[in-house]
Amino acid sequence: MAGYHALPLELLAEEFAKLPGIGLKSAQRLAYSIISRPEEDVERFANALLSAKRDIHYCPCCQNLTEMELCSVCADEERDHSLICVVESPKDVTALERTGEYTGVYHVLHGLISPIDGITPDKLRIRELLARLQDGKVREVIMATNPTVEGDATAMYLAQLLEPLKVKVTRLAFGLPVGGSLEYADEVTLFKALENRTAM
What we know:
Helicase, Ruva Protein, domain 3; Dna Topoisomerase Vi A Subunit, Chain: A, domain 2; Recombination protein RecR; five-stranded mixed sheet
Protein backbone atom coordinates (compact mmCIF):
# COMPACT_ATOMS: atom_id res chain seq x y z
CA MET A 1 0.00 0.00 0.00
CA ALA A 2 1.39 3.43 -0.93
CA GLY A 3 3.00 5.30 1.95
CA TYR A 4 1.36 8.68 1.22
CA HIS A 5 -1.86 7.68 3.00
CA ALA A 6 -2.32 8.29 6.73
CA LEU A 7 -1.03 5.19 8.54
CA PRO A 8 -4.37 4.32 10.29
CA LEU A 9 -6.09 4.50 6.87
CA GLU A 10 -3.48 2.19 5.35
CA LEU A 11 -3.83 -0.28 8.22
CA LEU A 12 -7.62 -0.26 7.89
CA ALA A 13 -7.40 -0.85 4.13
CA GLU A 14 -4.95 -3.72 4.72
CA GLU A 15 -7.46 -5.37 7.06
CA PHE A 16 -10.27 -5.03 4.50
CA ALA A 17 -7.96 -6.50 1.82
CA LYS A 18 -7.68 -9.68 3.92
CA LEU A 19 -11.37 -10.41 3.30
CA PRO A 20 -12.23 -12.79 0.42
CA GLY A 21 -13.01 -11.04 -2.85
CA ILE A 22 -11.67 -7.67 -1.70
CA GLY A 23 -8.75 -6.32 -3.74
CA LEU A 24 -6.55 -3.37 -2.79
CA LYS A 25 -8.66 -0.77 -4.62
CA SER A 26 -11.90 -2.04 -3.04
CA ALA A 27 -10.18 -2.14 0.35
CA GLN A 28 -9.09 1.48 -0.03
CA ARG A 29 -12.64 2.51 -1.02
CA LEU A 30 -14.05 0.75 2.04
CA ALA A 31 -11.47 2.38 4.31
CA TYR A 32 -12.29 5.85 2.94
CA SER A 33 -16.01 5.11 3.36
CA ILE A 34 -15.51 4.20 7.04
CA ILE A 35 -13.49 7.38 7.65
CA SER A 36 -16.21 9.54 6.08
CA ARG A 37 -19.00 8.13 8.28
CA PRO A 38 -20.15 9.62 11.60
CA GLU A 39 -18.38 8.14 14.62
CA GLU A 40 -21.58 6.52 15.98
CA ASP A 41 -22.03 4.64 12.67
CA VAL A 42 -18.46 3.37 12.87
CA GLU A 43 -18.96 2.31 16.50
CA ARG A 44 -22.14 0.44 15.53
CA PHE A 45 -20.23 -1.28 12.70
CA ALA A 46 -17.35 -2.23 15.03
CA ASN A 47 -19.79 -3.52 17.68
CA ALA A 48 -21.62 -5.61 15.07
CA LEU A 49 -18.30 -7.20 14.04
CA LEU A 50 -17.33 -7.97 17.64
CA SER A 51 -20.79 -9.23 18.54
CA ALA A 52 -20.89 -11.58 15.52
CA LYS A 53 -17.46 -12.95 16.39
CA ARG A 54 -18.18 -13.39 20.11
CA ASP A 55 -21.80 -14.55 20.05
CA ILE A 56 -21.95 -16.88 17.03
CA HIS A 57 -20.89 -20.51 17.46
CA TYR A 58 -21.51 -23.88 15.82
CA CYS A 59 -24.83 -25.56 16.56
CA PRO A 60 -23.85 -28.69 18.54
CA CYS A 61 -26.26 -30.75 16.42
CA CYS A 62 -25.93 -29.65 12.77
CA GLN A 63 -22.77 -27.49 12.93
CA ASN A 64 -24.54 -24.49 11.36
CA LEU A 65 -23.82 -21.04 12.75
CA THR A 66 -26.10 -19.78 15.51
CA GLU A 67 -26.18 -17.46 18.50
CA MET A 68 -28.64 -19.74 20.34
CA GLU A 69 -28.00 -23.04 22.14
CA LEU A 70 -29.41 -24.90 19.09
CA CYS A 71 -29.95 -23.30 15.69
CA SER A 72 -33.56 -22.43 14.77
CA VAL A 73 -33.84 -25.40 12.37
CA CYS A 74 -32.65 -28.01 14.87
CA ALA A 75 -34.83 -26.50 17.60
CA ASP A 76 -37.95 -26.62 15.39
CA GLU A 77 -40.01 -29.69 16.35
CA GLU A 78 -42.10 -29.27 13.18
CA ARG A 79 -39.07 -30.12 11.00
CA ASP A 80 -38.51 -33.70 9.84
CA HIS A 81 -35.49 -34.76 11.90
CA SER A 82 -35.31 -38.11 10.11
CA LEU A 83 -34.20 -36.31 6.93
CA ILE A 84 -30.71 -34.72 6.92
CA CYS A 85 -29.41 -32.57 4.08
CA VAL A 86 -25.58 -32.45 4.05
CA VAL A 87 -24.10 -29.18 2.75
CA GLU A 88 -20.66 -27.63 2.47
CA SER A 89 -21.25 -24.32 4.27
CA PRO A 90 -23.81 -22.25 6.20
CA LYS A 91 -24.43 -20.23 3.01
CA ASP A 92 -25.86 -23.38 1.43
CA VAL A 93 -28.36 -23.75 4.30
CA THR A 94 -29.53 -20.19 3.60
CA ALA A 95 -29.87 -20.97 -0.13
CA LEU A 96 -31.95 -24.11 0.48
CA GLU A 97 -34.12 -22.39 3.10
CA ARG A 98 -34.99 -19.73 0.52
CA THR A 99 -36.91 -22.39 -1.44
CA GLY A 100 -39.41 -22.68 1.41
CA GLU A 101 -39.92 -26.31 0.37
CA TYR A 102 -37.38 -28.32 2.36
CA THR A 103 -38.77 -29.50 5.70
CA GLY A 104 -35.90 -31.64 6.99
CA VAL A 105 -32.79 -30.62 8.92
CA TYR A 106 -29.19 -29.98 7.85
CA HIS A 107 -25.62 -30.96 8.52
CA VAL A 108 -22.85 -28.49 7.63
CA LEU A 109 -19.45 -29.99 6.77
CA HIS A 110 -17.55 -26.66 6.71
CA GLY A 111 -15.61 -27.61 3.61
CA LEU A 112 -15.10 -30.35 1.05
CA ILE A 113 -12.49 -33.06 0.73
CA SER A 114 -9.61 -31.63 -1.31
CA PRO A 115 -6.24 -33.35 -0.77
CA ILE A 116 -4.52 -30.82 -3.04
CA ASP A 117 -5.56 -28.07 -0.59
CA GLY A 118 -4.71 -30.21 2.44
CA ILE A 119 -8.40 -30.75 3.34
CA THR A 120 -8.77 -34.37 4.42
CA PRO A 121 -11.96 -35.99 5.83
CA ASP A 122 -10.77 -35.53 9.42
CA LYS A 123 -10.86 -31.73 8.91
CA LEU A 124 -14.58 -31.76 8.12
CA ARG A 125 -17.57 -32.22 10.46
CA ILE A 126 -18.03 -35.87 9.45
CA ARG A 127 -17.64 -37.34 12.95
CA GLU A 128 -20.55 -35.21 14.13
CA LEU A 129 -22.69 -36.45 11.22
CA LEU A 130 -21.96 -40.09 12.07
CA ALA A 131 -22.88 -39.43 15.71
CA ARG A 132 -26.31 -38.16 14.59
CA LEU A 133 -27.01 -41.43 12.78
CA GLN A 134 -26.26 -43.76 15.68
CA ASP A 135 -29.78 -43.87 17.14
CA GLY A 136 -31.28 -45.22 13.88
CA LYS A 137 -33.93 -42.49 13.63
CA VAL A 138 -32.57 -40.95 10.43
CA ARG A 139 -34.20 -42.51 7.33
CA GLU A 140 -32.46 -40.48 4.60
CA VAL A 141 -29.32 -38.40 4.10
CA ILE A 142 -29.34 -36.03 1.11
CA MET A 143 -25.92 -35.13 -0.31
CA ALA A 144 -26.24 -31.50 -1.35
CA THR A 145 -22.60 -30.69 -1.99
CA ASN A 146 -21.89 -28.59 -5.08
CA PRO A 147 -21.47 -30.43 -8.43
CA THR A 148 -17.69 -29.96 -8.53
CA VAL A 149 -14.86 -32.50 -8.39
CA GLU A 150 -14.48 -31.85 -4.64
CA GLY A 151 -18.25 -31.87 -4.05
CA ASP A 152 -18.72 -35.16 -5.88
CA ALA A 153 -15.70 -36.75 -4.16
CA THR A 154 -17.03 -35.72 -0.75
CA ALA A 155 -20.55 -37.02 -1.53
CA MET A 156 -19.15 -40.38 -2.73
CA TYR A 157 -16.87 -40.67 0.32
CA LEU A 158 -19.80 -40.04 2.67
CA ALA A 159 -22.10 -42.43 0.77
CA GLN A 160 -19.54 -45.22 1.20
CA LEU A 161 -19.05 -44.32 4.86
CA LEU A 162 -22.82 -44.44 5.52
CA GLU A 163 -23.47 -47.67 3.62
CA PRO A 164 -23.02 -49.98 6.67
CA LEU A 165 -25.54 -47.87 8.63
CA LYS A 166 -28.37 -48.93 6.29
CA VAL A 167 -29.60 -45.37 5.82
CA LYS A 168 -30.91 -44.21 2.44
CA VAL A 169 -28.39 -41.87 0.78
CA THR A 170 -29.52 -39.63 -2.09
CA ARG A 171 -27.88 -36.91 -4.19
CA LEU A 172 -29.54 -33.74 -5.41
CA ALA A 173 -30.69 -33.98 -9.03
CA PHE A 174 -28.82 -30.89 -10.06
CA GLY A 175 -30.48 -28.58 -12.51
CA LEU A 176 -27.28 -26.62 -11.94
CA PRO A 177 -24.29 -26.35 -14.26
CA VAL A 178 -21.35 -28.58 -13.34
CA GLY A 179 -19.00 -26.45 -11.28
CA GLY A 180 -21.93 -24.28 -10.15
CA SER A 181 -22.65 -23.20 -6.59
CA LEU A 182 -25.81 -23.65 -4.49
CA GLU A 183 -25.34 -20.18 -3.06
CA TYR A 184 -26.12 -18.54 -6.41
CA ALA A 185 -28.92 -20.84 -7.58
CA ASP A 186 -32.48 -19.56 -7.75
CA GLU A 187 -35.23 -21.00 -5.55
CA VAL A 188 -37.02 -22.92 -8.34
CA THR A 189 -33.82 -24.67 -9.46
CA LEU A 190 -33.02 -25.64 -5.87
CA PHE A 191 -36.54 -26.90 -5.25
CA LYS A 192 -36.43 -29.04 -8.42
CA ALA A 193 -33.02 -30.38 -7.40
CA LEU A 194 -34.43 -31.39 -4.00
CA GLU A 195 -37.59 -32.85 -5.50
CA ASN A 196 -35.73 -34.95 -8.09
CA ARG A 197 -32.86 -36.15 -5.93
CA THR A 198 -31.47 -39.56 -6.84
CA ALA A 199 -30.24 -42.57 -4.86
CA MET A 200 -26.48 -42.97 -4.49
